[in-house]
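User: My collaborator sent over this chain with a note saying "see what the structure looks like." That's all I know about it. Can you take a look?
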Amino acid sequence: MFLYSHLKHFQLALSFYTRLPIPQNLDFQQLPQATVYLPLVGWLVGGVGALVFYLAALLWSPMTAVILALIAGVFMTGAFHEDGFADACDGFGGGWGKQRILEIMKDSRVGAYGAIGITLLLLLKISLLAAMPVTLVPLLLWAGHSASRLPPLLLMRRYDYARIDGGKGVVAVFKPSGKDLLFAAMCALSPMLLLPVGCWLAGVPMLVVNRLLGRYFYRHIGGYTGDCLGASQQVAEVVFYLGASALWTFI
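Assistant: Without extra context I'll predict from the sequence alone. Here is the result:
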């Protein structure tokens, strides 16, 4: 029964955070608890991205292989987190005051701040990964996707949801327990063990930046929204790559 419950929650996480075909006979009332399995979703998304990069690098340049790997990740998730990042850029970039920021983030249209933000974010990912050794990139993709899905859970644990209006908020209201975070952290950080020891430290700036990002959200809207969580995942991922790239120069 214990394993069955874990499997069902993992399937719920896959159904919400990816576009993979998942059986529909699931209890979506338990969807909030399934957020703990976000890092395991990262295992799958990062693993597919790593495989796509490995195969593409046999035929094309590292930069082309990186772009194809990113496309695979976006295809699997339906740009779920990227959309949150773009909405957060629009909200905090163009809004003034809590209500206006929340209104802008709720708007499904992408504005100038969102378009510029997501473009620069993707370019930064491409430039960082393409410059790393080809043999290391698949491991970085797997570790980056897994580790970056822990920071949203840390925000959910520390802060309150800024609004209750359905949609993504139904999931975001859940506050993980210490036991939940320990399980998520073990899943999120374990792929990093395959990286060179020096690269393990890349997780430190990722967590520091996430803490600062959480404070920024709290100062402006009193907590977080689903879009803020998506933004925290994307920022954490690129900061992880930045850290690993910087540390690689000393290895």
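A starting point for your reply to your collaborator: The mean pLDDT is 92.
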